[in-house]
Amino acid sequence: MAMEIQAPKGTKDMLPQDAYKWQYIESVFRDIAKTYGIREVRTPMFEHTDLFLRGVGDTTDIVQKEMYTFNDKGDRSITLKPEGTASVVRAFIENRLFNEAQPTKLYYITPAFRYENVQKGRLRQFHQCGLEVFGSKEPSMDAEVIAVAMDTLKKLGLKSLSLNINNLGCPNCRPKYNEALKKFLAENHDGLCDLCKTRFEKNPMRILDCKEKKCHEITKNAPIILDYMCEECDTHFTKVKEYLDMLEISYEIDPGIVRGLDYYTKTIFEILTSDFTVCGGGRYDKLIEELGGPDMPAVGFAIGIERLIMTLEKEGIEIPNENLFDLYIGARGEEGSKCAFKLASSLRTLGVKCETNHMGRSIKAEMKFANKLGAAFTTILGEDELTSKKVNLKRMSDGEIFEASLDNIEVIAKIVR
Ligand code: ATP
Ligand code: MG
């Protein structure tokens, strides 16, 4: 046998027995998005590298360590998208969606690629469902975006969710905070990791998000941004909290969260389960302008689908799954097989999920197979059935038999569905 090729590290096949979980999560998310008037957007899997250098930020972990970047045959630097926001903003600007009535509410379901240390809940290709709302600076929109994420996670059956929020300030107040933070970090400079030493000048707040233990120890006592907010940010934050209270969404304020992307301003948030951070998001009022668009505010989030599925499974939450087949049609003899083949085809036009024998198996083996597939009903077409034009439909759950005429497939369809 030829040598077997394995999937690249950090990637996973989505197998048929798991597909329903993905479809269910996606459909719950889509249905909830609809109730908010949020429409779908799909952007390419790869972009010019510059988009992420500018959009995600060149001092972030994503840009410094995690991007899948390569030159294509035309010698352009291309990057597989490591997250969804930058591409959606690019599409918003490029397609002039800012000229339409605002706000623009968009959702996406996409793979994302990051060259990470592979571990539980950390893959190199993973998937996100996310949302971006452009054009509203109102705190009610921050709360609404958080509500979409919470609605989705609750609808899926998750109970122990914690929402942590923070405010990162704006270009008005953040410089003052950065100064205070730098002053504090300067006193501890030697203890920082090498990467954080480079972050110290360019973007000291990044150091608060460093995963190195020694940096974490240092930043535990760092000044917090909430003490440096300007009046506008302070009022905004107060109102977001009021709106969340109105929706009875409980939250904790966590001044330690800064999130792994540079573009955030004002509100940021994370939603945690017992094991993982499953959702991260926030406001990014300067990104559209920074990427060449108009000065327009924005807020969004992304949920990690793999982490979500792992959490649902761990918490024993059942994901609805339908039978693979409503009816298995077994057959005796060549005439029976032909009739079964034809009947399956007719029933499918009525939406019945059915299957017949394509394996040349005996009746006994066929019924065993039907059982294994979890067919809700079975029937057998042989000489008797062809002559009498009648079939017996056997309900597998209790063995009850329903008789139906072969000339009336509507009735058959009605019984087995
Ligand atoms: P972390 O701090 O865990 O690295 P992050 O801040 O990099 O997360 P985001 O960029 O905010 O994560 O992505 C949003 C969500 O996507 C995360 O909350 C998580 O559920 C999921 N996610 C991020 N990176 C990965 C990964 N490598 N594998 C699987 N899921 C991921
Ligand atoms: Mg990360």
UniProtKB/TrEMBL annotation:
Aminoacyl-transfer RNA synthetases class-II family profile domain boundaries: 1-320
Compartments, as annotated in UniProt: Cytoplasm
Single GO molecular function: ligase activity
Record-linked InterPro entries: aa-tRNA-synth_II, aa-tRNA-synth_II/BPL/LPL, Anticodon-bd, Anticodon-bd_dom_sf, His-tRNA-ligase, HisRS-like_core, HisRS/HisZ
Protein keywords: Aminoacyl-tRNA synthetase, ATP-binding, Cytoplasm, Ligase, Nucleotide-binding, Protein biosynthesis
The reaction(s) this protein catalyses: tRNA(His) + L-histidine + ATP = L-histidyl-tRNA(His) + AMP + diphosphate + H(+)
EC id: 6.1.1.21
Pfam families: HGTP_anticodon, tRNA-synt_His
UniProt cross-references to HAMAP family, sorted A to Z: His_tRNA_synth
Official protein name in the record: Histidine--tRNA ligase
Gene: hisS_1
